[in-house]
Amino acid sequence: MAAPVHRWGDASTYYMQIQSISNDFDIQYQSKDIERALETQFDDFPSGLFLIKTEEGNYYYGKEFSYALFASPFYKILGKNGILFFNGLMFFMMILMGYLYLRTENENKIALSVSVLYFTMSTAFVYIFWIHAEIYNMFLIMASLFLWERYFKNKNPKYLFIASFVFGLAFVAKVPNILLFIPMLFYELHNKRFKNSFMMLFIFMLPVITIYGYFFLNTGSLSFYGGDRLYYIHSYPFVEGYDNINEAGKPAFSVSENRLDALMNEDNLKVIPYNLFYYIFGRFTGMFWYYPFTLFALISVFTSLSNDSKASPKSNFNNYISSNADKILIFTGIILYIVFFCTIIGNNYLGGQHAVGNRYFYIYPAFIYLIRKIDLKNVLLVISIAVLTLNPIILDPIGNSINPSSHQTSIPYSYLPLEYTQLNNLPFWYNSHKIDDMLVYRLDDKSKESGGAFTVSGSADMVLKSKNEIETLLVILNSKNSDMDAHISVGSSKNSIDLNKNEISALAIKDLKPAYVDKRYFVYAIRTSSPNDLVITLKDVSSKQTNLSVFFLENWYTVENWDGISSRWISNNATILMYSKENRDLPINFEAMSYYIPRTLEIYNNEELEYAEPISTQPGAIETNISLEEGINLMRFHVPEGCLKPSDIEDSDDRRCLSLAFQNIDFES
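Now predict its structure.
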């Protein structure tokens, strides 16, 4: 069994921790740790390593270490596959606990079948194959609630106290997990079981104090995310001359550097309604699509509570609440957990660009405890959703871990809402393209990017993200193979244009309405449609600092440096697009020379000839004026004599077809 590729810090850090604990019984990063890791090279580990550097210059791993502690015996016996075996064992134990819980109100076969389906038909299955703490967090939540349910049913305090200890471990693994413990604690206080409340809190704190205390004594930091926390992609300490003096680590997020605004700030509050919607229905994170049995659990609990309410007279309302307190408390914990991630970690509630679905959805096992009597009709409904949404993922868990966005272009994901609030953290590894100061995300496989331009075949959807509001978007279009009628819409602005074969044209789309806005960026939804291949280029020409935007389009070769002079060759027909905010005469100054033989330069502006002069084989200065109209202007540099390839007429490997070279082109904007 092999683990997937993870080029990021969490996996590498956990793996190094496990090695360190199993071999050296400590959590300190030392030269022997990195030597051992490089000798037994696994995947791209230790690339992407989090370390905390103490004032004394020692290094410790910048992640909680309870997962590594429990995984280390399995690693010691079975090597790296032992870690995956540990994940698989916890996954099986969750299925077993689910079965034991469900059989209290259902037949054994039904309980076992639903428990198996509940966990395997979810994105949780993918995380078995990760050297990571996702399954560990889920297991701790599953186990703590399983024990607490035992206490709720038979009132035996030993289950309550063991559950409290596991809740403490869950808090250590991930702080927000405490939100499931808090309703249980208040339940005991509300019922005036103060001894139980005290013991719950005391036992809960045992693993917390032990693990955090050990970490503090070693690192001087009260948080696994504190201190001088550094990130390493390569150039690790104690390798190739790097050490605590010659330091190559980059500063990473640390709670001790007053960087909590990276988690929550005033602007995050504005995105809460969006986050709550995306959390449930989003294309990359929606819990109903990646964990569809949450829908079954919610239907089950509300149906059961509704039936109980109808069967109970109002005079027995307190008895009704008491008999369903376990469901109400667990559901309260779930709500608190979801609200926490959608608010406090509103900018990244899913776990970053490597997440398959929502990897922070550790709360998933809690939903199974909302289920009572199983309705097989509802099970079939959820299975149909799961088959539709999860097949591309769970049939290739490693492939989807390597590329978490590979499934999102297929049905039904292509029809689901895109999480605009999370664009900085969605796994657009190969579908994200920087164009000037904008980012363009391709949402399907109907378009390809090359050199800043997009070739579209059929209908294609894209999203444009800009730090600034775009007042005017320039869309440059080129029909390569045939005449066509092309369509492009940006938000509610719909545009059509007829193109001839090989024709370059452009649209200036104004008064754009962003699909989404917050302090970080503006988002614009773009759809293009054409019967054949269409090449489009997107440019923001709304800058208030210039009245003229100039774009070199076809048949301009790469800029060359000739003794400090910027120079560019063209073939026999080169195009420049100019977007002017006003009618004006534009002075143009440049030097030009012809390749091998003298030639004639003709300058057409919007297909009107405005300049024609002979050009010699030596650089000569040229000054002229071009009359620009407000909006789009196409200027064409035409050479009637054509171009020549140096490889055809001299000893050269240069196969470019050259006519004229231009130097120091200056458009006096």
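Residues 548-667 form a domain with the Jelly Rolls fold (CATH 2.60.120.260).
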